[in-house]
């Protein structure tokens, strides 16, 4: 059975299971060593210069990559006429009491057939 080696702690785990790896990764010693490892990386000049060059190349799009963009609701990209208006809801519209949403027969592909079926059931 293979042993798991943690590159940050430079330690071999004798049991290579998901549970043992997760237990090691959630440990305080591993977290502390990981934090110091990345802090040392950020202090290196070649990495600092690399980050600065990427920021300069991105320019205005840098905030987009940081995740500071508003991810609210947006309409899909499409074109509308300039005089487009949303029609008002029909007044006093109600489905008949016997209308069954679970029945697939109530939803034909042709709307005229649907209306005809509803009217026939309503007057029977």
Automatic annotation (TrEMBL):
Keywords: Metal-binding, Ribonucleoprotein, Zinc, Zinc-finger. One of its GO terms (molecular function) is zinc ion binding. The keyword Lyase does not apply. Residues 1-38 form the U1-C C2H2-type zinc finger domain. The keyword Transmembrane helix does not apply. One of its GO terms (cellular component) is ribonucleoprotein complex. This is U1 small nuclear ribonucleoprotein. It comes from Vairimorpha ceranae.
């Amino acid at each position: 059975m293979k042993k798991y080696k943690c590159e940050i702690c430079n330690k071999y785990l004798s049991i290579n299971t998901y549970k043992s790896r997760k237990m090691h990764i959630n440990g305080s010693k591993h977290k502390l060593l990981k934090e110091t490892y990345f802090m040392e990386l950020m202090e290196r000049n070649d990495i600092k210069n690399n980050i600065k060059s990427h920021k300069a190349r991105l320019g205005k799009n840098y905030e987009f990559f940081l995740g500071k963009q508003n991810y609210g609701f947006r309409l899909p990209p499409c074109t509308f006429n300039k005089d487009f208006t949303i029609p008002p809801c029909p007044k006093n519209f109600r489905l008949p009491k016997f209308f069954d949403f679970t029945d697939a027969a109530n939803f034909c592909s042709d709307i005229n057939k649907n209306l005809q079926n509803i009217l026939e059931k309503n007057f029977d």
